[in-house]
Design a protein that fits this description.
4-stranded antiparallel beta sheet; 3 helices; about 15% helix; alpha+beta; globular; about 40% strand
Length: about 110
Amino acid sequence: VLRSLCSGGPNTSLRFRAVPPGKILFTANSRADSAYVIVRGSIKYVNLVPEAQDDEDEEVPTLSTNAWLAEVTLWLQWTHVGTAEATSMSEVLAVNAEACINAFSELAPLKQQ
C-alpha cells in the first residue's frame, strides 16, 4: 500500500506542491479531489458560506505548518466552500482522495468484507 501511495507514478496519492505567495491553492465552488497538509509556510482560508462565519468582523484565518485543508475530501465527494491562498512561500502535501482509496482497496482484509 505504501508503495502505491508514494510511488511517484500517475496514480500516486501523495504529492508535494510548492505554493508561492499570492497563489490560489483552490477556490470556492470548485470540485475537491485532494486534501492538503501544510508542510511549511502559511495559507489564508476565506470561507464563503455565511452561516460558517460567526462574526462579520472576524479575522480571516491564516493556517500554518501541520494544518489540514479540505480533509473531508478523503471520505466524501466535496465542493470547496472557501478559497485558500498562500500568504508566504509555502509547500503542501496533497493527498489525492481517489488514488488513496484505490491504494487502500488493495489491502486483503478490506477486500474480504
